[in-house]
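Q: My labmate handed me this sequence with no annotations at all. I'd like to see what the chain might look like in three dimensions before we decide whether it's worth expressing. Could you predict it?
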Amino acid sequence: MGDRKVEENCLNRAIELALKQCGCTKKFAKRLYAGVQDGFKEVDRVRPDFVVLCPPTENEKSTLIGIEHFRVDIHVTQKKTNAVASTAIVQQKNISAFYKEHRKKVLESQHIPQETLNDLAQLLKGRIEAEQKATYSNFIASFEYGLKKHVSHIDAYWENLNSIRGKNDAELGFLIEIHADFDRLYLWHNGKVRKEAGQHTPIFDDVIKLIEKNIDTEKVSFVILYFVETFAPTKERVVIVRTKKIREQLKRQNETIYKYCGDDFRLKPFELPYEKSILEAKCETDSKDENQIEISMSRAETVAQYFEMHLFAAAHQAYCYEKANIPYATTESAFLIIELLRGYVLYWERLQIPGAEWMVYPIMKHYDKATRDKRYEEFKKRWDIGDGENDE
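A: Here is what I predict for the chain of 392 residues:
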């Protein structure tokens, strides 16, 4: 069980967002809202985290609903015990600590103290280092760990619910707080591509597979997927879905399920996307205006071995999805390769490297540099990419 106030805020915000929707999502949210207004019911050891008695409706009896909350992150680490822990929570605490420590100093000083600038530089360095280590496989590992951990306690949740349900119906569900922070994903669906503005997490096929594999729909009847950006909490959305025939339920809500084939899709959980990275950050006051801050950063990074092959593998997988008309999500660097190669690949040759049989190489028709450069410029213009944003 985590911080009670944080968990309650998460539940309340998810309900607020759901009430703005329509259909079964709004209907379910109304019942939850009424139950929350009536107050949380006490159960042994607060398992599940929330228990509310929802009033009867025209077609339903009063229902005791239990909700267990857990958080999923893309910024995670694996402990020696194999537990998966969020590093984003540490980053959030560091930001809060920085604000509390330096706010008064800055307000009471004529100029920004050097100590504040130094601590800001370290804060930014830590933030970017965490972003470098964030991968899709880490996100899926976090989801799988959190889900399995809480599924293992389902019998205890039901024991507590049954002890106070009386003659009421009862339901159990999960509130999954998702901090994935995927940046600039490209979503392919029915032959069309949409670039997500900022950080957005679609519903991935791997997530649905985990739910289907691990959840007994007779014991856990719904999941509330609350998507929120870690460092921009106002960017949020909620999806409430029944677990039985979950894919059909999502389709009814016009929620597309995406396969993933970004440049890191072949990486294993906690495998770094680079071999070596040295990052330096420096904050200084502007020479002309001491109340303005100049931030300079330098990074020396050795990309992962066979990085080019990761891009080719992503492109090959994307073409397979397109041929089968399967929606997919990919990263900007991978989508660039997908578009540069499109129409010029004669066939793919699988490389015979022990342990890396996934590697494929495109055998291409004549493709001169001028044509490739033209395609690259067209790609940047179409997707509004400035110089330096993509170096592949």
